[in-house]
């Protein structure tokens, strides 16, 4: 049975160029109208989590990466939404926080399996020594919490998989997201039983051409499928899968607007 798995960084529901409204419902319609089996999302504002099941018609498995705040003070998802409505294109995650989500078609069974902080303090400290990071880079790396979370899936046809979704840190120093990709891969391996398919998906924030980790993951030792050409990937191990396919620009347009600054990427598992 062929399975369609897709990943999309939603850019907090914004268009390109940014506008003063959110296009999250329209994005969900585009992302799910061909009945995919799994959709992994990044940069989802937490206020939208309670609406995703209605917008998508799919099961929702979220992980909060950054909670809503007003400066250093904790806030709520609804207050973050109201504050960001002033100018969503410019404010985006400033007040709303952000989440990652795994959507699963209702014909399949899923349960949350675990979560890990990709840029946890101990990990950053160890990488600082290994990579020789300067103070500015270390402070920037600590600024925004990044997580990976895993969902254990039993597909309708009987196959079992663990889907790990994450959004790595964006940095001019590509060694940082590359280190987080490797950390996410080890987390996925720990979550996945030998008889299960492993799906590693999300915004890796690094291209295969400049990554040390991706060639390893897609090589014979790890055995994942081939990456996409950009920074968003869906890698599969334990089953045959197509290389990552980015959508064409026209496929993510709505009313002549280009939705998100990322193209969805998808693979077919056979």
Going by CATH, the architecture would be 4-Layer Sandwich
Choose one word for the global shape. globular
What is the oligomeric state here?
single chain
Q: Calculate Rg over CA atoms.
A: 18 Å
CATH class: Alpha Beta
Domain module tally: 1
Q: Give the SSE string.
A: EEHEHEEEHHHEEHHEEHEHEEEEE
Strand count: 16
Strand neighbour order, sheet with most strands: 4-7-3-1-16-13
Structural class: alpha+beta
CATH topology: Deoxyribonuclease I, Chain A
Task: Give the rounded overall mean pLDDT.
Answer: 92
Task: Tell me the helix content.
Answer: 25-40%
Largest sheet entry: 6 strands, mixed
- Percentage of residues in DSSP E strands: 25-35%
Q: Please mark out the parts with pLDDT under 50 across 5 or more consecutive residues, or reply none.
A: none
Total number of helical segments?
9
Termini Cα gap:
6 Å
Within CATH, the superfamily carries the name: Endonuclease/exonuclease/phosphatase
List the topology elements:
Blueprint: E1 3-9, E2 15-16, H1 24-32, E3 38-44, H2 52-56, E4 59-66, E5 69-70, E6 73-74, H3 77-84, H4 88-91, H5 93-96, E7 98-104, E8 109-117, H6 121-131, H7 135-142, E9 147-154, E10 160-167, H8 175-191, E11 197-203, H9 213-217, E12 232-237, E13 245-246, E14 253-254, E15 257-259, E16 265-269
Parallel strand pairs: 1-3, 10-11
Antiparallel strand pairs: 1-16, 2-15, 3-7, 4-7, 5-6, 8-9, 9-10, 11-12, 13-16, 14-15
Defining key terms:
16 strands, 270 residues, alpha+beta, 6-stranded mixed beta sheet, Deoxyribonuclease I, Chain A, 5-stranded mixed beta sheet
């Amino acid at each position: 049975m062929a399975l369609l798995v897709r990943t999309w960084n939603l850019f907090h529901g914004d268009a390109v160029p940014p506008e003063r409204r959110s296009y999250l419902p329209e994005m969900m319609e585009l992302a799910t109208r061909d009945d995919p089996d799994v959709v992994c999302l990044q940069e989802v504002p937490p206020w939208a989590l309670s609406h995703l099941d209605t917008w998508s018609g799919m099961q929702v498995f979220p992980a909060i990466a950054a909670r809503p705040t007003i400066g250093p003070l904790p806030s709520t998802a609804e207050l973050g939404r109201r504050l960001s409505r002033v100018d969503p294109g410019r404010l985006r995650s400033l007040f709303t926080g952000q989440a990652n989500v795994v959507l699963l078609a209702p014909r399949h069974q899923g349960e949350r399996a675990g979560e890990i902080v990709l840029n946890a303090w101990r990990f950053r400290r160890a990488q600082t020594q290994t990579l020789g990071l300067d103070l500015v880079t270390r402070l920037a790396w600590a600024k925004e919490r990044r997580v990976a979370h895993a969902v254990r899936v039993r597909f309708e046809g009987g196959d079992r998989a663990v889907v790990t979704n994450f959004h790595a840190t964006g940095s001019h120093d590509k060694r940082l997201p590359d280190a987080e990709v490797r950390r996410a891969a080890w987390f996925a391996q720990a979550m996945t039983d030998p008889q299960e398919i492993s799906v590693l998906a999300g915004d890796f924030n690094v291209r295969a051409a400049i990554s040390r980790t991706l060639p390893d993951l897609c090589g014979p030792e790890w055995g994942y499928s081939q990456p996409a050409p950009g920074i968003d990937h869906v890698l599969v191990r334990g089953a045959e899968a197509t290389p990552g396919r980015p959508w064409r620009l026209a496929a993510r347009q709505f009313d002549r607007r280009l939705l998100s600054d990322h193209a969805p990427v998808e693979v077919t598992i056979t």
